[in-house]
Amino acid sequence: MSDLLHQLRAAAWDARLNFAPTEEQELLTGLEEVLVMVNELKKELDTTGETPLFFPPLPLGRMEEDRPGKSLPREVALANAPDAGYTCFHVPRIVVE
Amino acid sequence: MKRFEPVIGLEVHVELLTETKLFCRCATAFGALPNEQVCEICLGLPGHRPLLNKKAVEYAIRAALALNCEIAEQIDFDRKNYFYCDLPKGYQISQFFNPTGTNGYVDMVVNGTARRIRIRQIHMEEDVGKLVHQGEIMGSATSRVDFNRAGIPLVEIVTQPDLRSAEEARIFLQKLRTILLYAGVSDCKMEEGSMRCDANVSLRPVGSGMLGNKTELKNMNSFRSVQRGIEHEIERQEEILEEGGHVIPETRHFDENRGLTRAMRSKFQAADYRCFPDPNIIPVIPDKDWVARIRESLPEMPDSRTARLTGLGLPPYDVEIITSDRELADFYDAACASYREAKTLSNWIMGEFVRLLNAGGMKVSESRVTPGQLAALLALVDNGVISGKSAKEVFEEMFATGKDAEAVITEKGLTQISDSGELEKIANKVIAANPAVVADFKNGKTKAIGFLVGQVMKETRGQANPQVVNKILAEKLNNC
Amino acid sequence: MTRDNLTVKELFCLYNRGAVTREELKVKVPEILEVIDNRYHAFISRATDFDPGVPPAYPCVAADNICTESLNTTCGSEMLLDYRSPFTASALDKARSSGFFLLGKTNLDEFGIGDCTGRSFFKTTFNPLSQDHLAGSGAAAVVAVGGAVAGFASDARGGLRQSASFCGLTGLKPTYGRVSRRGLIEYASSLDQVGVITAGVDDATFALRCISGPDSKDPASQESPPDQDSTASGFRVAVPEGWDRVSGLSAGVKSVFNKTLSLLAELKVEAAEVPFSYLPLVSITAAIIGATEAFSNLANYDGVRFGKRMSGDHLQDMYVKTRTAFFGRRVKEFLTFGAFVSSGGNYREYFLWAQQNRGAIQRRLMAILKDYDFLLLPTLPFTAPTLAESSGLVNGADVYTALANLAGLPAVTVPAGFDGRLPVGVQLIGRPFAEAALLKAAKLLEEQGGREVVAP
Ligand SMILES: [Zn+2]
Fold first, then answer.
1. What's the complex ipTM?
2. At the topology level of CATH, where does C3-211 sit?
3. Minimal Cα–Cα distance from B150 to chain C, Å?
4. What is the pTM of this model?
C-alpha cells in the first residue's frame, strides 16, 4: 500500500467515513493531482514567510454576561434524536480494548 | 539507595464557578435532571454560534494570576477534533495555541523543605457530557448521554515535570486547591468531579537529566487516591526497569479497590486532533485595566498569609490550619484586628469555633458569630468579667443565636465576681467554717488552700474570679 | 396582460398596491411555485400557508442550509432529511421583520459543498435560461423566473455569486461580519457569509439593508459603519493582472469582460491592471481551508442528537456507517480531503500553507484597495455548466470569487453580457463594510452594461 493511500485511509477514518474500492481509487487519483499542483505552486510562489490568517480580521469580539438564559425544553432537545428515551440520548455500546 | 527517581507532572482540570456555560447561557447548577440544561449551542446543533462567557474568562485570568502566570495578550480558542459520544460537536473548544496563563509557579513545603513547582500553562476548555450506564461501561448494549455538563467551563492547569514523589504530588494538589479556593474560581471538590487530576509518571536513573517513557495515569478521585495511584505506578515502573524492561507509554487507570494501575488500550489508533483556531470565536483582548482590576480583587494568597501569621508568633501547625481555608483565615484576620493575643485567638478559632462548625456541618460563611463578637468575648475573659470556662458556654450560645457576648452573659447571669469586698465576706465565712483545713495550711500543707478556693467558688456558683479568690485567701491565712 | 401570466413577484407587487386580494394571492402563489418546481426542480420545501399578512410583503426564498422553525432545513442532504431546527436564522428573522415573506427553501449543493452545480441529495436544479444547463442553486432559478424578489443564500467560496451569474442575476456577498451567520449551517465558518440573489442591484441594496447589522447571538456580526460618501463616477478600478491567464477561462467570458473594460473607459472610469501574483493560489487555498473547516463543522453529524443514524456494532462503527450512508459522495470526498490536509503530518505542508496564502492574499488585496475603490474581475471563468460537466476536488470555478471570501471582503456580481445563450457576470470586490459604494458602482455597471444584456 502506498504511503499516500495509507494517509488517505487514515484521513477517511478520522472523518469517520468509508469508501468503496473504486471510490477510494478515484479519490486517490484526484488527491495525487491536487498534490502535484500544490508542489508546482509552491515552486512558483513562496508564501512560507507569510503570517497565516485563520479568519478575516474583525474589529472586535464580544463576550456575554454570565446570566442564565433559556435552555431548550428537554422534549425539544430530544426531538430530533434518532434514538432517545425520556431523558437521554441513546448511543450504541462503547468498545474499548 | 534507589537507582531510579520519579519524574511527575500533573494535569489538573477544575470546573469554574460560573452560573452559565462557557459558550452558552445554559445554567451550570448541579442536580438538574438529564438534558434539562442544554440548548442549540451546547448540543452542537446545526447553525449554532458560540457566545463567550465573560465571567469564565475573568475566572481563568484570576486563576492564572493566583498561580503567578503571565497573562496572554489575546484570549482565543482552538478546536480539538475527535469523535466521542460525550462530545456534541465532534470537537472540543480549548486553548491549544495560546493558553490564558503561562510560566507560573506554586511554592510549597514538603517535609520541611521549600519546593517551587513550575506551572507550564493554564487554559480554558469546555467540559464534555456524561455517560449514564446501567452497570459496567463495557457491558451495556447502549449508553445514555446527558449533556447538562457539556460546555461547562473548565481550566486545565499543567505543571512542569517538577514533582519527585507521590507525596509531593498530593501536597501540590492540596496546595493548588487551597490557592484556587482563595481565588474563588472553583469549589475544587474532587469527589464531585469539579477537580480532576491526571498524572504523567516516568522514572529516570538518579542524577540523570533524561526523561524515561511516561505513562498517563487517570481515574484518581481523591487526594489520597492521587498519592496511592502514583505510588503504585512508580512501583510498577521500578520493577520493569529493574528487570531491564521498557515502560510502554500509555494511558493507565488507577483501580482504587484493587490498588493497581491498568492499561486502557484503545482498539482504535490514537486520535490526531488537528487543532486549529476556531473560526467562529473572534479573539478578545483582555484590556490592561481589566486584568489589573482582577489582580487587585484577589485576596491575600496563602503564602503571604502564612508569612504574616508566622510573624505574629503562631506555631506552624496553627498557621497551616488557619490558612488552609480562606474563610477561616479571613475570620482570623478580622478577629485579630480587634483582639491582639494571636495564640489565644487561634486556640479559640481552631478549637471551639471549628468544633461547632463541624458539629453543625457548616461553612465559616454560615456562622452567625462574627469575628468582632469573638474578639469582644475574649476581651471580656482577659478583663476578668467572665471565666475562661464560662466563656465556652457563652460562645456556644453566641454561635447558636448570633447574640453579643454581653447579652448572653447577662441573660445567663454568668458575670464573674471580681469585687474583692464581696469575695472577702465569703472568704471569711469559709475560713470560719473550716478550722481544720486552716490548721493544716498553718502546719505547712500549702495545698490545702485549694480546698478553700473550691468552697468559695461553690458559694458563688462558679462566678468568682479564681485568681482573685486565691489572692484574698492567701492574704487572710498568712495574716491570721 | 392577463393575470394568469403574472409572476409571484408581480402578484405581490399588486397585492402591496391593493390590486390583488389576499385570497387570490393565497391561491395563485402556490400554483406558480408548483410549476417552477416541476420545471426547474428549485425547491426542497415550500411554505404551507401563503398568507403574507399586512402589506407590504416581499416574496423571498432561502437556501435550505439556513435554519427555519417553520420549514425543515436539510442542507440538501439525506443526513438531515426531516430535520426541523428549533430556531430560525437571525438574518431571516430580520428579513421577516422588514416585510419579507418566506415562500420556501431552495435546492443547493449538498451542504453548499460542491462546485456550484445546484445538485443535492434530492434534485438537480436546471437553468431557466437554458434547460440543458444547471442553475447553480434553486434560489437563483426561482429569482430568475420572478418567483421571488430575493433569494437568501450562503457564499463560502463564491457559490451564491456563481449561480447568480449563471442565471443572469445580481449576487451580493456582504463583508464578513456584516450579516449575522447564526442559523446558517455553513461548512466553512471563516469563508461563509449570508448574502442575497436578486434580479437587480436595487433589490440587492434593499435586501442587504434588511438583513445586516449586529446580532447579539452572533458575536462576529458587527455594527455597520456609516456609508462612506462616494460618488459612483469618481471611482477607480483595479484589475488584478493574470485574470486572463486563468486556466479554463472561456473565450466568451474573456470577451464580455473586455467589453466591460471598454465600457468603463467610455465612462471615463479609471481601470488599471495591478500586479497580483496570487490568482493561481486562490482555488486551492479556499479548498484546503474550506475542506478542513468542513471536516470539523460537519463532525456534529454523528447520529446522536439529530440527523439520520445507521445502526452499528458499536459507537465508532455507528459513526462510520451513518456518515458513509447519509453523506453524498462529493461531501465525503471533501471531508476526507479536509482531514488529509490538516492531519498531524500534513498540517504545516497544506493547512498552514493555505492560511499563509490567505494572509498574503488578504494583505495584498487591502494594499490594492488603498489606491483603488474596487477590484474588477469576471465572476467565473466559464458559463453555466451542463450536468455532464462534472469536476474534481478543485475545479477552479471559484478562482475569482473566493478571493473575496478569503479576505472577508464584500463582492457583487452583475450580468455583463452573454456567451451564446448563457449570461456572463462580472464581479466587483470592495473595501470592508463599503457595500454602499460597491452597490452604487454595480448599479452603474448594470445600467450601462444592461444595454448589452439582452438575451439572444
Ligand atoms: Zn447550552
1. 0.97
2. Amidase signature (AS) enzymes (3.90.1300)
3. 13
4. 0.91
